[in-house]
Amino acid sequence: MNRRVFSHFFAAFLSLAALLASPAGRAAEEAPDALIKRVSTEVLDSIKADKAIQGGDVTKIISLVDGKIMPNVNFTRMTASAVGRTWRQATPEQQKRLQDEFKTLLVRTYSGALSQVKDQGVNVKPLRAAPTDTEVVVRTEVTGRGDPIQLDYRMEKVATGWKIYDLNVLGVWMVETYRTQFAQEISAKGIDGLIASLAQRNQSNAAKKS
């Protein structure tokens, strides 16, 4: 996997940022494909209008993630899936540290992807799902300069509406990619070793951007 593909992962992750711009009840009633179309359009417009985000302002991006994205993503499930079966063996404190460090890794590593947003748009494909389904895959293409980029969302329906828990860019699911990396760390050093490794990577990324 190259950095360009990973940058699309994070750009996709941040494309959820405007979910709270609409009333909470609307999100609960909205179909998952309609939600992705609306949110993607709103957020792309917002990024294009914000020079600080385009410039990779990490403080502003973290604020965006905490205020707009995290309430609408099942990040516990995303992190648990990335960690794998060892997640159940982790203590509540270890699980919290894993989520915190994983979120920071995503923010700091891929914040540069936002500077690439220029004239992109999103084409949402017809949803293949039954009305009673509680888990769906919303398939989209990001259009703009160059070839369209495949971008799919795994979503689940909970009491508060639809939430995203995984992303697929160019045929590669983000959680599966990180699961392979994390499994190697856990096998060598255990859960605490993975937490320490993530913290070290985050410190290194922060130093590079300072």
What is the first-to-last residue Cα distance? 26 Å
The assigned CATH architecture is: Roll
* CATH overall fold name: Nuclear Transport Factor 2, Chain: A
Mean pLDDT: 82
User: What percent of the residues sit in helical stretches (DSSP H or I)?
Assistant: 40-55%
Q: CATH H level: which superfamily? A: Tgt2/MlaC
Number of helices: 8
Give the C-alpha Rg: 17 Å
Helix/strand-derived category reads alpha+beta
Strand content: 15-25%
Q: In order across it, which strands form the biggest sheet?
A: 1-2-3-4-5
**SSE string:** HHHHHHHEEEEEH
Structural domain count: 1
The 3D shape can be described as: globular
What is the top-level CATH class? Answer: Alpha Beta
The major β-sheet equals: 5 strands, antiparallel
